[in-house]
Amino acid sequence: MADIIKLLPDHVANQIAAGEVVQRPASVVKELLENAIDAGASTIKLIVKDAGKTLIQIIDDGKGMSDTDARMSFERHATSKITTADDLFNLNTKGFRGEALASIAAVAHVELKTRPEGAEVGTRIEIEGSKINAQEVCATPKGTSLSVKNLFFNIPARRNFLKSNSVELRHVIDEFQRVSLAHPDIAFAMYHNEGELFQLPQGNLKQRIVAIFGGKTNEKLVPVQEETDILTINGFVVKPEFSKKTRGEQFFFVNDRFIKSAYLNHAVTAAFDGLLPERARASYFLYLKVDPSTIDINIHPTKTEIKFDDEHALYAMLRSTIKHSLGQFSIAPVLDFNRDSELDTPYDYKNKGIVTPKIEVDRTFNPFENVAPPKRGAQRPEFEKPSAAGWENMYEGMESQATAVSTMTFEKEVSTPDMFESGLNGAMQNISTSPSQDESSTYQLNNKYIVSTIKSGMVIIDQHRAHQRVLYEEFLRNITVKESVSQQLLFPLTLAYSTTELALIEELKAGLENTGFIFGTISGDILEINGIPTSITESQVPVVIDQLLSDLENEVPDSGFSQTDTLAKSMAKSLAVKGGVSLDNMSREHLVNSLFACKEPSISPTNRKTFVTMTSEDLERKFK
Ligand code: ADP
Ligand code: MG
């Protein structure tokens, strides 16, 4: 038999390697930022177009490359960072595999311009799918500029596999933040589609965190510091009362490298034990320094996971250090009299002028009754600011997801009819609120399921999932047909967001406007909203947007393929009536009818069953 084994040509080998190193635009950003840091840059600029799908450019003022090095840098396993295997155990650089540039050049159009200090002219190299198109001298500032265009131009399957711009941008920003948080002594800037997203001057760690996450972060941070023989811990944790339920900022750096570690995260969470509201997540920025020879960062190609020699000791130290810091800065919320009251309202409500709160006590409210009947007459103030002492109440509203500002546990009942009015095209605007149960052909079970009869037997519907389906199809229709109705707000709503969040909202703007949002100006970190969809109330806006941002971040696996879809799903999820809410007869009937008018009534937008049926035969079998 003839010999059949061949060595793969370089460009094929590179493309295969690229599969590991370059998964998405964010991976390119990470590799190039790290190269710039390894090159000793003191200023690094990142320019991105279309979330990196069209262009990623990194400009640094580092040491640059000679003519030959510039050419060599695109060869696989070409690195200046290690020479022997032993060096692997004493790494002080980010890179060492010598694979990044070769991989990137295999799957994109790359242009490199570089000039070392002292050289009169620089080198320009153009390379496309591993093929060098040009190498020439050029005039360029000291340092390196690398632009990567049309990522995956030669692998359509991978290009199509990329997510929406908002999702990819989220990943790019994540990488940018991780790298810039690890190096506060380097100035960074980031631009997306010509707009400036971040401008981070050189500074200390705290200044860097504040520059990225906004001015208010400053007062939320508790310093953490400890030094032992095997470990130095530095950084900050966020005071428990500012912890977030869905989006926590959790950053671990080991020897200036961002890492993920469920185990160490557990140590931090354990230190917060008893201080965090239910289901909230601790936020932290923790910098660990250990002897490089006691860790192995070689176990994962993208290097976000590492192995420690003595994990147990690290765990114990981390936990006790943070516990100590939290204690020392008297974090117990009841004692915190210095809380900035402005932070209690989720957005800039003060511009609306001062309204004397009217407080009406619901005298018929019975805490032992599972769910009180809906009260139409009672007018309550729209917002009630939690008092400092009643801090636990702050989270009640969040738990019910009804509204982040509500401290009223009965808010849910009031909002139910509203949701249906809107969800069901206002058809229920004038419904009687005390329908006679006798006429009803639907029943509610455990305030969670709706039971109804059908020709062949009976159907049991999950109210939350069913309502999600109804709203999802409605939003999807609105977004695509662009026929939604807005309610103009008398006073524009002003909500504060971080730069990252605003960039994501900007990406989703067109879609959101099709659902009925009308946006005003964005200035600084304030987003102005002039109109909202008729299907939501003003107080639901922060909840809807928060859910959306967190869905984008967590990238619900089965929903990622289109922005419209994610948007509709996310809004349906945050607005759908929850389990535990009592529905009156009309609402139930309407929900059932709307569900079965849907295109796909049997599954929720997240692919879960919306109802089960029991036929007469099933029943008869049971009675045998
Ligand atoms: P690695 O970083 O693992 O060494 P890369 O493929 O990322 O591998 O880079 C190959 C080599 O190119 C590096 O070792 C370095 O010598 C050089 N290089 C890459 N980017 C830069 C840069 N921005 N400035 C100077 N040299 C660079
Ligand atoms: Mg590298």
Could you explain how this protein is built, in words?
With 624 residues, the protein is an alpha+beta fold. The chain has three domains: 10-200, Histidine kinase-like ATPase, C-terminal domain (Heat Shock Protein 90); 205-328, Ribosomal Protein S5, domain 2 (2-Layer Sandwich); 463-595, Ribosomal Protein S8, Chain: A, domain 1, CATH 3.30.1370. It contains 17 helices and 22 strands. The strands form five sheets. It has an eight-stranded mixed β-sheet with strand order 5-4-3-6-2-1-7-8. Strands 9-10-13-11-12 form a five-stranded mixed β-sheet, sandwiched between helices. β1 and β2 (55-60) form a beta hairpin. α12 crosses α13. The longest helix has 19 residues, at 463-481. It is globular and about 85 Å long. 37% of the residues are buried. The structure holds adenosine-5'-diphosphate and magnesium ion. Residues 31, 34-35, 95, 100 line the site of magnesium ion.
